Amino acid sequence: MAETGQVVTRIAPSPTGFMHIGTARTALFNWLYARGRGGKFLLRIEDTDRERSTPEATDAILTGMTWLGLDWDGEAVSQFERVERHAEIARQLLETGGAYKCFSTQEEIAAFRDAARAEGKSTLFRSPWRDADPATFPDAPYVVRIKAPREGETVIDDQVQGKVTFRNAELDDMILLRSDGTPTYMLAVVVDDVDMGVTHVIRGDDHLANAARQSLIYRAMDWELPVYAHIPLILGPDGKKLSKRHGATGVEEYQKMGYPAAGMRNYLTRLGWSHGDDEFFTDAQARDWFDFNGINKSAARFDFKKLENLCGQHIAAAEDGALLAEILAYLEAIGAEKLADSKKDSLAQGMYCLKERAKTFGELLEKAHFIIGDRPFEPDTKSLKSLDAVSRGILSELTPHLQNASWSRNGLEEAVAGFAEANGLKLGKIAQPLRAALAGRTVTPSVFDMMLVIGREESLARIEDAAGRTDQ
Ligand code: GLU
Fold first, then answer.
1. Is 244 part of the annotated catalytic residue set?
2. What pLDDT digit, counting tens, does each position of 343-355 carry?
3. Whole-angstrom Cα distance, residue 226 to residue 42?
4. From 165-174, 239-248, 277-286, 436-445, the region with the lowest mean pLDDT
């Protein structure tokens, strides 16, 4: 149970087989709001649609949340497991007169609508059973409907949208329990939120009209309304609703694209929320700063460039050990081969020179090819250009100088600089073939960093391999 006055938020995704990036952002806002106030953040799986709600679909949500680092309090709640409780509330409402049994058949409802349409009236169904005498009830299936007020207005005082007014004449007596006894989504959400002690409902603004209808259940049960904050949707760069056309929409796809979770959190927090001009920030700052007044009223546009930029900054700022753990998880997620322990050690050792200027783990690993690859190093087309006969000659002549050097940054720098000077060569003339020999790539850390990370023996062996090439 939550302590009195404690903020309790939740994310309530429907398992659809993947976790939408919009859901992830909603989860993040709820998480930040609660965590910044010593509150609780809960997870409820809205799995009442039995066909779609497979264990795999639920797993996709748990995995997505876990990857993003959005930890929730307690066990994830299954909405489906609570159907009895939902039905109990419907029965209570029947007893108190807040709801009624409606025996109208589908045909009768359709006929009502046709007639209303023909007369140019509202097609909202007005059940003849709303005030019927129970003595007239047939022995037939019925649904339970809420007895919604027909006059006046329902106002949702929303933290983002402001006061939003709905005319009660436009709210129908929605169904709470279907004729097979199963609860509707509207009922389930409210009962679950109340039972879970949710104090703040932060969700997409596509649920704003639902808030008005759900508030009728709160009123009928004499429950306290939560604070509502309906946040604008995420649009694609072209201003249309974010969809597959714009690129990835599933959270796990972003993991597979090699974005660090901290960068994703930073970017998604900024997507539709701002704190002055701050772009790059830590979780701790986001927790401190996050509030409803920073949420933009208009929809945010997804900007991949900005995401990459922030991800690069987070990779550079990350602590080496944590970064390595995240990279290993990334490799697992993309189904790459496991790295040998010795390579993991070298990665850890070389992380300091790999994490600058990498926007994704893929880019970082590309730079780490000199660690991950194995001898003999097959140079790519670009770096092969630095291994012509002259360059190979330079490598051969440089070799004894390196053999005699002390294997430290100073020692290696002095050896290379001394050799360059003695032979009237520019440093680049030596660094390029050396880079090609050590990594077989052109985008790498400095040759000194590489030699220090892989060590004397391995460096000299690779240089010998390259100097001995006979292919051009
Ligand atoms: N299950 C709903 C959805 O995935 C969320 C309901 C809510 O947040 O109240 O859109």
1. yes
2. 999 999 999 999 9
3. 15
4. 239-248
Asked if the bond preceding 433 is cis, omega within 30° of 0, the reply is no
Pocket test for ligand 1, best of 11, 156, 207 (most atoms within 8 A of CB): 207
Residue 298 is given by DSSP the state S
Cβ of residue 213 lying under 6 Å from some atom of ligand 1: no
How far does residue 208's CA lie from ligand 1's centre (Å)?
11
The pLDDT value given to residue 296: 94
* Mean pLDDT value across the chain: 96
Q: Is the peptide bond before 226 cis (omega within 30 degrees of 0)?
A: no
**Across 35-39, 46-50, 113-117, 199-203, least confident range:** 46-50
Judge whether residue 2 has pLDDT over 60: no
Q: Is the CB of 191 under 6 A from ligand 1?
A: no
Q: What single letter denotes the amino acid at residue 244?
A: K
Tell me the C-alpha to C-alpha distance, in Å, between residue 364 and each of 64, 87, 188, 281. 22, 54, 46, 21
CB contact at 8 A, 30 and 8: no
- pTM for this prediction: 0.93
Q: From the CB of residue 131, how many other CB atoms can be counted at a distance below 10 Å?
A: 9
Q: Whose CA is nearest to atom 4 of ligand 1?
A: 13
What's the angle, vertex CA 34, arms to CA 155 and CA 198, rounded to 5?
A: 50
Catalytic residue among 244, 305, 359, 385: 244
The two tokens of residue 100 are 């009624």
Distance 59 CA to ligand 1 centre (A): 17
Query: Given the structure tokens 């129970």, which residue do they identify?
Result: 134
What's the CA gap between 117 and 112, in Å, rounded?
9
